[in-house]
Amino acid sequence: MTDVVVVESPAKAKTINKYLGDNYTVLASFGHVRDLPPKDGSVKPDEGFAMVWETDERGSRQIAAIAKALRGASHLYLATDPDREGEAISWHVRSILEEKKLLKGIEVQRVTFNEITKSAIKAAMAHPRELDFPLIEAYLARRALDYLVGFTLSPVLWRKLPGSRSAGRVQSVALRLICEREAEIEIFKPREYWSVLARMTTPAGAAFTARLTHLDGHKLEQFDLNNEASAMAAKAAVEAGEFGVEKVERRKVRRNPPPPFTTSTMQQEASRKLGMGAQVAMRTAQQLYEGIDIGGETVGLITYMRTDGVQMAGEAISAIRGHIGHSFGEQYVPDKPRIYSTKAKNAQEAHEAIRPTDVRRTPADMARYLSPEQKKLYDLVWKRSVASQMQSAELDQVAVDIVDRRNQRVTLRATGSMIAFDGFLKLYSEGRDDSPAKADDEQDRMLPAMKERDAIGRGEVTADQHFTQPPPRYSEASLVKKMEEIGIGRPSTYASILTVLRDRNYVQLENRRFIPEDRGRLVTAFLTSFFERYVDTQFTAGLEEQLDDISGGRANWRDVMSAFWSDFSHAVDQTKDLKISDVITALDADLSPYFFPAREDGQDPRLCTACNTGRLGLKLGRYGAFIGCSNYPTCQYTRKLVADPKEGDDAAALKDGMRVLGAAPTGEDVTVRRGPWGLYVQQGEPDPEDKKAKPRRATIPRGLDGDKITLEQAVGLLSLPRIVGIHPELGEPIEAGLGRFGPYVKMGAVYGSLDKDDDVLTVGLNRAVDALAKKLASIRTIGPHPKDGEPVMVRKGRFGPYVQHGSIVATVPRGQDMNDVTMDEALTLLTEKGKPLKAKGKKATTTRKPAARKTKAKAAEGEDAAPKKAAPKKKAAPRKTAAKPAAKKTTTRKKATPAKTESETD
């Protein structure tokens, strides 16, 4: 006679059966065994929110298998995942078995474990408990809420805003965040400001850069130098000065390690550092949790990956501290263990943080057992967990004030820092969502030794133009962070929410940033106009708090549902008499700044460009909304709201196929044409006698209006790539051009992508340098060569670092860090091993480096597509697998869409 244990996935079932032995039969439920049918009426508000459950074919098979195994058993252990969703699956299994009267004489108990290791499984089986009904009721409330919002609000969208897909309780709020950020960017007005930098040298000849901070006794604020004239006057004042060190300030700064991963922070770091989408990160983490085959034994490498707790078990902390002392030295072990507490809103710290189950299983030892994705994520989790218990880093920060000795008229400041003790930074450094400010970059620089009253030599002085930048679009990492901060959704739901937004074509992910599609902006405008409360972040966060109160036994789930449904159903009823024309009028007014931005020439942006008399506005057609002319049907000008990304918005205006702009400097006609891939400009016509000779062509980039493009702009596009300028530090020319993936800047073999808002025809040197900065971070300038003053650099190459002076390169000895190479060592290498750059051909620099970068870029871009290839591996994500059979019904019922796609459960 054997007892029965039910888990979620077959991978866990096999491993756990090995740990428990022959006295147990371990079976998998394959996620949920039943769910709400995807049709109206599955939740009955008038009957106390009673729910109609439906067991799908696979669920029926699993229940039958469990029932068969229970014959003769005395115990049924429900060992599904240790969260609300896992509790619900256990409840569903028990409920079905009770309804079938299959539990007579069988004791049913619940067991949970945070890691799949033999000791954790044995400990869990020794301490079973009853089902947690407050947690189950929280699941019921969340499931009913998502169902009712989806099945009630989505049909309103279909009827009142044809072309829309669906709405969801948390999904719609996330979409609103993306759209509002885009609106902030659109109304942003850049302000001009200038900075003055001077190249300086110490008495020992070491070079550094200082920034002008005071002029004529006045401290310069950001916008004090707001035009070229004032900047040039300041530059002249610096050039006229003779400088010395007035003051050197030094202070020690301690930097503490970040806590171990929660679900949210793991998704954020995986996005920043590994280029993994949230969905890929969660799937990979589940594989590491469920177990990896190591030497014939399946071993769980990390703890449960759905958690918002940051604490770790005492034995895990002790093991990590011991490992730190053994591997890094006792100086890296703090006097006391670090104890963390979460700052996230609505956090439930019932589970540990995500950590390795055994710190002795290092990423290097595990690498041969893991896939590339698993290896990268395990390395991230392991390092973050170990670093969280390491000693703080200590930095020596230095600020040097340099003044004009003659009249004290000019003061410059140079800042930098040096790591006095690396502490946790020896192992791990947390990523950032967006590029750091220039001040942070300067703070991270190292300064040469200086003391007060030192005479300082002045080199080149530059005045650089800048413009303030709009807030950045949300990345997956920053959007997840924002949602967690304001308390909407749960960490385990973020991946599915972001996936739904993309699948519904409400947003697109470009350069790993979310950009709302026109359809998404229409839906957001509709919901904020007629259901503002239900897409309000504070209301949604407040509802999350009520759901947490239910799970904690502090609120009755039916009372919470009744209060919500009373107001929500009333708001929906008020839209019954709403005419579609009223909706279009409201959206036309709300989205006017977006669809009809002000024109530089002062003309009415709504003036029809085809008939020059009609007024453009939102119209409604059979397949959704579009921009049309008020003179219809006389004027049939239309413009899509949801444009093909390969086709400009105004492509429909080129009804004759082409438009002549004028003559190029060569005398040939320049035309705008519409091809299969969108709008482009062309110079001249094909030569009928020479079929190989083709006229010059250039794609019109997104953001440039094909209907209003000028001859000057077209000629500019045809002349790309163009020289932007010379890099101020490296002295190499920078080009700007259009490539397959959009506008770019290039310096030698180094490429940098430009943003959608950058104009490739006018982008300046400063912006080009900024775009190349990340790629150039792999280059370290040691200093000027003693013979000719040209910079001596250390670069990261495909096969290791190398030093370069002009066109001469030399490989750095294997094992030596590029940051440790001194000027003397570099000069010796160049003298003894130096070879001309051209002698190695394009392999050494021109081809090799870009190839490496391109591979990384493709890997980063490909992460979001990875789930499609991995789709058959449903065992790694049992909950999604469980939903699949029901989802098939949505192909025959339009109303089935909201129930499955909008279910936002943990």
Record keyword descriptors for this entry.
906 residues, alpha+beta, Rossmann fold, Topoisomerase I, domain 2, Topoisomerase I, domain 3, 6 domains, 6-stranded antiparallel barrel, 5-stranded antiparallel beta sheet, 36% helix, 22% strand, disordered C terminus
In short:
This protein is of the alpha+beta class and 906 residues long.
Can you walk through the features of this model?
By secondary structure, the chain is an alpha+beta fold. It folds into 6 domains: 3-131, Rossmann fold, CATH 3.40.50; 141-188 and 472-583, Orthogonal Bundle (Topoisomerase I, domain 2); 192-256 and 394-467, Topoisomerase I, domain 3 (Distorted Sandwich); 263-391, Topoisomerase I, domain 4, CATH 1.10.290.10; 596-640, no CATH class; 780-828, no CATH class. 36% of the residues lie in helices and 22% in strands. A 6-stranded antiparallel barrel has the order 9-10-16-15-12-17. It has a 5-stranded antiparallel sheet with strand order 31-32-33-34-35, sandwiched between helices. A hairpin with a 5-residue loop joins strand 9 and strand 10. Mean pLDDT is 82; it is low at 435-440, 642-657 and 839-906.
